[in-house]
Design a protein that fits this description.
By secondary structure, this protein is an alpha/beta fold. It has eleven helices and 14 strands. Helix 9 runs parallel beside helix 10. The longest helix has 15 residues.
């Protein structure tokens, strides 16, 4: 008799509570948000709007910290002791040592399969929903893990930013670059490199008013890939005007044949790096 398969995710998957319930995700493990010696948990006692408030009040940004090996053991062990197998979807391994820590914990137990999503945000979330689909089909954990590992290079995650102010404050770009982008009205997009296990890099740069740049970005993404899987696509944002979300949704409806267009709000990790007014479309392709 096959064992029950438990599905767990890192909080960086940025899935809404509604989707967590809909897709029967058993547990969300929060990454840590650090302000000096104070530690908070992503989505539990620290949220993006609080990060923004602290930044605008004091210019201070947090750092994010991985889930430790011991914490992963505490999460996984009860499921294993209850006779279950576990599929865990982690943040891309080049972005955090959370994946390595989860793997180390899994190696101390039996039947725990940790998937390097090679992505972040709902790029990782897409892999989680694929896992859920396969659990619902009755597949065993090993077979699910084998299939998921073949999907990660078909996963496309990118965002467009309204400002580089947060990246500059966090030391992820120079103040000069941020100032220049602001003066010239440049709105950069950033994209995940799946080949590098989820590392982020600057992709295309857009110029003009932000709403128009967002529309250009979305159309460019749809033009770039001719074989987008129509089953589901995400619009994920870090706090943005509803009109921009609706303009993106309209483009996706007009240009695609998507069965599900999900809108989610990014958690503390993306938000602390990119700030508000960041939005992306995230999807999978057939090849």
């Amino acid at each position: 008799m096959s064992k029950k398969v438990i599905l767990t995710i890192d909080s960086t998957c940025d899935l809404s509570e509604e989707l967590i319930q809909q897709y029967n995700i058993d547990e969300v493990f929060p990454l840590h948000v650090l302000y000096g010696d104070q530690s908070f948990d992503d989505g539990i006692n620290m949220f993006p709007d609080e990060i923004y408030k602290r930044f605008y009040d004091s210019g201070t940004l947090p750092t994010t910290a991985a889930i430790s090996i011991g914490e992963y053991l505490d999460h996984f062990r009860p499921y294993v002791e209850n006779g279950c197998e576990v599929i865990h979807i982690s943040l891309g391994s080049s972005l955090s040592c959370s994946h390595a820590n989860a793997r180390a914990a899994a190696e101390m137990l039996e039947g725990v399969y940790v998937i390097d999503s090679r992505a972040l945000s709902t790029g990782s979330g897409l892999i989680a929903l694929e896992a859920s689909d396969r659990i619902a089909q009755g597949m065993c954990a090993k077979d699910i893990a084998d299939e998921l590992n073949k999907l990660t290079d078909k996963n496309h995650a990118s965002f467009i930013l309204d400002t580089l102010r947060f990246l500059a404050a966090g030391g992820r770009c120079s103040a000069v670059a941020a100032f220049g982008a602001n003066v010239l009205g440049i709105k950069p997009s950033i994209a995940v490199d799946n080949a590098k296990c989820g590392s982020m890099g600057v992709a295309k740069k857009f110029r003009g008013k932000f709403p128009a740049c967002v529309e250009q970005y979305v159309n460019d993404q749809l033009d770039m890939y001719s074989d987008i899987v129509p089953k589901r696509i995400f619009i994920t944002h870090s706090g943005i005007d509803e009109a921009i979300i609706e303009s993106v949704r309209a483009i996706l409806k007009n240009r695609g044949n998507f069965e599900n267009i999900y809108v989610t709000r990014a958690g503390c990790t993306i938000s602390s790096h990119c700030g508000p007014n960041c939005i992306g479309v995230l999807f999978m392709t057939e090849s």
